[in-house]
């Protein structure tokens, strides 16, 4: 008989984040993958799926509300929610089409398993497996580990894997004295930071409320590799370099010297958490001071270390932080505009994720592209940047409320981010103000397109 258990910090954060989505945007919580199964025995594929379900709690977990609070219910056994389809594969875009179709179907937050898939065979022989997971149960890190374990199991049914604590074990530990020091340290960090976070002038939306936004994506095969090269020279990370350029651009376009930038943390810094299969991601705010006269190298290093310090406090009980925020607002004599604390506390956020293990080429010549999303995400934060690296290509997705940053400003920010990466690799002592005022004629077309399209 399954027993209800509280959520871990990562699970609770994902729940609070996803419950604010408008009903017609719930599919945004889905994370898809597709695996090529050609040449593999069907029995090996089916066995690997059964072993993974038995090995990992999230694949057997359902969520429920009890007295208004979310709980997790881990089932001892469950059938893999995978549809079997035997047909001729139309073309090599077929797997991606099926993956996208699965990803477009939202999961109910309560009552059912939070993943599904389709196993396609031809005359009984496996061709591909498409899967869609809700972020309620897994993050990208976990999906990469599951993919590795699936590959090992189809190659060797006896393959074993190094495992971390389960989500229910984490939830239990986070409520014991073993976690007390981290809990108290996180609360101190939040108390120090809440004043600046609540003073952020960027507007916020209540849960499930929609507003027109703009969304542009810069694609470059070179940018990620050049950022990694420049970061090594500066003694920082590529995500920190790009984040520092985003913070500087946001400060410039909103005419402020300070921004509260929220970073997405994987929360897998401790060795025992490297192999956790579950959802661990949480946002943590970093208050960044931007001095236009500072050298680019100094600005990047300052934000790198500010982010590194913030990550120490990035695993926390979100509901407890919401209480602290309400208390801080009351002390300031302020009435919150609404009670969606995810939107209130994280008005501007940044995430950098490497989706595979293929590095980017710092000297790639492929021309960069700038594309506008026809229908941008209409809910949540008024500004966010998500950097993803896959197949050697870096994509910088920027979303903004056009009343804060119009399309021309977004294009300028993305162009200057690309230029900032180039300058960080060649002349990192350039000041921020000189970077903004620099002509862009020296910007390589492999980092940013020469002709900038604008949304219709």
From TrEMBL:
Gene3D superfamilies: Chloramphenicol acetyltransferase-like domain, Nonribosomal peptide synthetase, condensation domain. InterPro entries: CAT-like_dom_sf, Condensation_dom. GO terms for biological process: amino acid activation for nonribosomal peptide biosynthetic process; lipid biosynthetic process; secondary metabolite biosynthetic process. It comes from the Bacteria. GO terms for molecular function: catalytic activity; phosphopantetheine binding. Residues 5-322 form the Condensation domain. One of its GO terms (cellular component) is cytoplasm. It holds the Pfam family Condensation. This is Condensation domain-containing protein. The lineage of its organism: Bacteria, Bacillati, Actinomycetota, Actinomycetes, Streptosporangiales.
